[in-house]
Structure formats: C-alpha cells, structure tokens
Amino acid sequence: MIRCDRTDGIWTVTIARPDKANSLTLAMLTELAERIEEAGTTGRARAVILTGEGRVFSAGADLDEARAGLATSPVWERLSAAVAALPCLSIAALNGTLAGGAMGMVLACDLRLAVPGAKFFYPVMKLGFLPQPSDPVRMAALIGPARTRLILMGGQKITADEALSFGLVDRIREGDALLNHAREIAADSIAADPDLCAAIKAMCR
Description:
About 40% of the residues lie in helices and about 20% in strands. It has about 200 residues and is of the alpha/beta class. Helix 1 runs parallel beside helix 3 (about 75-85) and helix 5 crosses helix 6. The longest helix is centred in the first third of the chain and has 15 residues, at about 25-40.
C-alpha cells in the first residue's frame, strides 16, 4: 500500500490505498517512516516527493485502527520527524484532500503543492483526541496561530484557494501537472552538490 519509485535521484513515495481514501494503518505509517528514514540516510535521496493514488491524498488514520489506539501512536511523530530531518528537498504533491493525522507528514515537508479541488481539515478535537504534538507548532509557523485554531478548534474545511492564501500550500496545479511541477522544482536540487543543498536547507530553518 506504499509505493516507492526511485528515479534520477527523486524518491516518489505514494500512499496507495485509494479504495479506502488512502486512510493510514499502523503498517502503512511504519513503512512510510522506514522509507523516509532510508531516503535521508543510506538511500541518500536527492529529493523526496510525497503523494497519493486516486482523488484523495489521505483521509488520515484508518478509523478502526484509530479507535484501537492508532490515533495516539508515536508512529505519527516518528514519520513527521523523519520528513523534517531529511537533508534534501521534500515536496508534498497533494493529489486531493488532506485530512487528520496525515497532515503531520505534509506540514513537515519543505513545500506543498495541491490540486484545485483539494480540501484541508483536521477534526481531531471532534473525535476526542489531541493532535500530534508537532502538528500545531508546524501549522502555526506556516499560517499563524489564529488560522491554526480555525482548523484545529473551529473544525473548518479549508479550500485549496484558501490554503494558498493562508500559506498552507505554496502552489496549485491541475491533475497530471502536479507531479511534473514537483519534479521541475526538484531539478536544481538534484543537479547540485547534495551537501550544498543540505547546508542551504539548514540555513532556511
């Protein structure tokens, strides 16, 4: 349910459970974390693109597993920490709606691209859980505390256009152009010395 394509230095990691809106199980989250950790260490990826298969990036946690304890599992923080620690450029290519805990890995990326029809929401309070600890911090750094409360406490669904105006996403691209644009953005990083890229990324933090 997780695919990893490694072509020309770009690791494209795809959530592939479209029949379940790419909802995430413990096994899927663990595999995602392992792939991202590998990309940042032994794999030495030159760029990482996170995307989904179908019309939804991810609906968040698989509901059955969430009720059984996945909602509060440390695996979410392991995954977002692995994304944040990547020395190379990381891009979330959001092929559709992003919901719940799946937002953590996306917030940890360097850049976020989305299709026009994507929506963004994180109904964690309604479900009776706290968000993962790093998620509000990263979200507030991107869009400010008030808009973060709008999403986390107000339960609002944000459209792609709103997300762009907020700074939650960086660009909007149609369908097939989404991944192509992510690869275009990554081109300079792939062509450059990886240590130089890592140093520039560290300077931007």
